[in-house]
Amino acid sequence: MGVTVKTAKEIEILREGGKRLGEILQKVAAEVKPGVSGKMLNDLAETLMREKGDSPSFLGYSPRGAKRAFPAALCVSVNDEVVHGIPNEKEKILREGDIVALDAGLIHKGLFTDSAMTIGVGKIDEGGQNLIDTTKKALAVGIGAVRAGATTGDIGFAIEKFVTSAGSFGIVRDLAGHGVGYSVHEEPLIPNFGKKGEGTALKAGMVIAIEPMLNEGKAAVKIDGDGYTYRTKDGTRSAHFEHTVVVTEKGAEILTKV
Ligand code: MG
Ligand code: MG
Hints:
Bound molecules: magnesium ion
Oligomer: single chain
């Protein structure tokens, strides 16, 4: 399909879908506490989506090369799990001190938004909080680099520069942000590292998901036997934040913000 620009009418629908998705993630996050299972969070997310007539975009989604479709509405990735953790197969009970990434995609009136956040379960240690705070700021910095005429490389450059200055975190390089709106993943790819002026030029009306993933240790990740769950290779914890934004002449409008 190549890089697409959405119409004003489509952006209006994405704005409503993004707002709904942001609210759902907030409601799911509010239920995160020790003893809660991934399945409970997944079921809540799916129920909240469907009760307003929307549907989960991840459930049944088959990425290229996948042996089976993704089996859940919500990704729940705990501690060393980076992204795409499956919440409803193995029993995944959250424990005090865990950090958990919640990632969901919503289809509203046929159009797709995508958002993620990482939070602590109960009381978490300083390292975990620092990892979460830095990843959240990295997303804000990445969004800050968006405007018509900038490039995907400018976003990656800004994120990489900020993260490097913030400490010794591993920026996951095997996974990236992406265009979104007509489907779960569209062009262009938006790596969380890069060089100024490289990559795809951004145009007003492009809708993109920016999603830094930071590890406490090294950047390398591996995929589990379930075919989806990415983990850090060195076993350190990982955090993930994501917003869907629309590129404007002057900057970015965040669609998935509450
Ligand atoms: Mg996502
Ligand atoms: Mg995404």
